[in-house]
Amino acid sequence: MYACHHFLEDKWSALMESRFRWVWGIVMEKMSAGMERMLTGTSSVRAPDGSEPFCLLFASIEGGTELWAKNAAVMGAAITKYHAMVRSIIALYDAYEVKVMGDSFMIACVNIVVGMKIALAIQLESMRAVPIVPGFTMLENPQGGGDPSCWRREGLRVRVAVQHCVDVVASYDAIHQRYDYYGPSVNCCSSMLPVACGGEILLSKESFSALEAMPAYKGEPCPWDLRQLEVHSFHTDPRGMDEFISVSDVGPVELQGMPEPVHLLSITPKSLSGRRFRNVKVA
């Protein structure tokens, strides 16, 4: 508009400006709608169709309700940054954002090796992105403890549940042009999330067995950004992901809505293995 005003000079009028704004608004609206359709269409290509096993993740922020009550303005800004961080990880690993509800993400990806990479990346990037926003501080009595160097008070604590899915129905909503997923594996994954502490990754023993059975788990070099918290080198390391995670046996746990206790394992990046979590009620 400035350029039009500059070149037309005396011919420019308030009427012309109002018409210009009206036309420009329509153009921007159509462009935004077109970009959204393009992104939705591209994203749907990445969505597992349920015809073969894949991986689901649920992620949410510890103490989200309390953090909103503590300082809504700061938390609102932190959520925006958190959404951007998680979505960048989803895009990096060619995964699919099923839905987001407040601070809770549901993510689908091609297999559990990729799912574990996403979960590890969320934990490590949550530590690197500090302060998440100026003025943010975590709650006074968080669930996790242990080595203080494995935590940042100025960062969010994100809990993640990961599930190898073998009995899921994929449903495509033609109106909203999105996939959603239903079935026992989905129920198990969503039931694990409330049991997890902020800063922790939980998965079932069966899912971990599926992870170990995949050649890429040990045979594919672990990405440099998942090997350590502080990135000092981008060199290739031939060691697999199994060398860069810490695994703890939680045991059988009664999960809400599940007919039988589920044997859970707790995962952290090895660079954050000093974290300790409150024990859940073991069945």
Automatic annotation (TrEMBL):
<dbReference type="InterPro" id="IPR050697">
    <property type="entry name" value="Adenylyl/Guanylyl_Cyclase_3/4"/>
</dbReference>
<dbReference type="GO" id="GO:0004016">
    <property type="term" value="F:adenylate cyclase activity"/>
</dbReference>
<dbReference type="InterPro" id="IPR029787">
    <property type="entry name" value="Nucleotide_cyclase"/>
</dbReference>
<dbReference type="InterPro" id="IPR001054">
    <property type="entry name" value="A/G_cyclase"/>
</dbReference>
<dbReference type="GO" id="GO:0035556">
    <property type="term" value="P:intracellular signal transduction"/>
</dbReference>
<feature type="domain" description="Guanylate cyclase">
    <location>
        <begin position="55"/>
        <end position="193"/>
    </location>
</feature>
<protein>
    <submittedName>
        <fullName>Adenylate cyclase-like protein</fullName>
        <ecNumber>4.6.1.1</ecNumber>
    </submittedName>
</protein>
<dbReference type="GO" id="GO:0009190">
    <property type="term" value="P:cyclic nucleotide biosynthetic process"/>
</dbReference>
<dbReference type="Pfam" id="PF00211">
    <property type="entry name" value="Guanylate_cyc"/>
</dbReference>
<keyword id="KW-0456">Lyase</keyword>
